[in-house]
Design a protein that fits this description.
218 residues, alpha/beta, Rossmann fold, 7 helices, globular
Length: 218
């Protein structure tokens, strides 16, 4: 059993009664999954169809033994090594499924994110969405209470461009250049916002940062 005594008084995972979905378990998503598991979250859904490649090792939560494995399967084993009691469900591509609970959007294609949000725009089963975006040194976290219409509309507006535009601007998760400190910082911000939401029902809807200037703005 995972012993969470050091943080349970501050954050008790038993208060997370709904599932957690992580869309994309590459750089940001794999670390978010690891952090959530160490916090004691027991019901996690992992979405990804990619396999682990050698260039993933420096900034993702995989090791050399995972090369060639599907990311969701490799990550599920890592999470079970941390907490054998965890309940993990794995999926490949998102194909219009209805989500629920807490959603971390870390896929490397902005068009897929937009599709997810549009398909679930009026889905009352979702509590909150945490959208992570990174370039080499900079990143953004856009969060939304899903029962707040203006939050959902804001996230849809900020996802209203195509994948080629994202690659040109290198502002979204999955840019060709990536370094671990930027990845870890946006993952930490997403987890912190998630914890605050569970504890207070409040969240920061927009955070922008430069990992190497050490500046975070709202």
């Amino acid at each position: 059993m995972l012993n969470t005594i050091r943080h349970k008084e501050f954050f008790n995972p038993i208060n997370v009664e709904k599932d957690v979905h992580i869309l994309g378990v590459g750089a940001v998503g794999s670390h978010i999954a690891t952090f959530l598991t160490r916090l004691g979250i027991k019901h996690i859904h992992l979405w990804d169809f990619d396999d682990v490649e050698d260039h993933n090792i420096p900034n993702q939560a995989y090791n050399q033994h995972d090369l060639g494995k599907n990311k969701t399967e490799a990550l599920a084993q890592h999470l079970k090594d941390i907490n054998p009691e965890i309940n993990i469900t794995i999926y490949e591509k998102y194909t219009n499924e209805e989500l629920s609970g807490y959603v971390f959007a870390c896929v490397d294609n902005i068009e897929v994110r937009k599709e997810v949000y549009e398909n679930n725009e009026f889905n009352a089963k979702i509590e909150a969405v945490f959208d992570t975006r990174i370039a080499l040194e900079e990143g953004q976290l856009i969060s939304a209470k899903w029962k707040e219409e203006n939050h959902v509309e804001n996230l849809l507006n900020l996802s209203d461009f195509n994948h080629n535009e994202v690659e040109e601007e290198t502002t979204a998760c999955g840019s060709k250049l990536a370094i671990l400190p930027t990845v870890i910082l946006v993952a930490n911000l997403a987890i912190t916002n998630f914890i605050n939401f569970i504890k207070t029902n409040e969240l920061k809807t927009f955070l922008s940062f430069n990992a190497f200037n050490m500046k975070i703005s709202k």
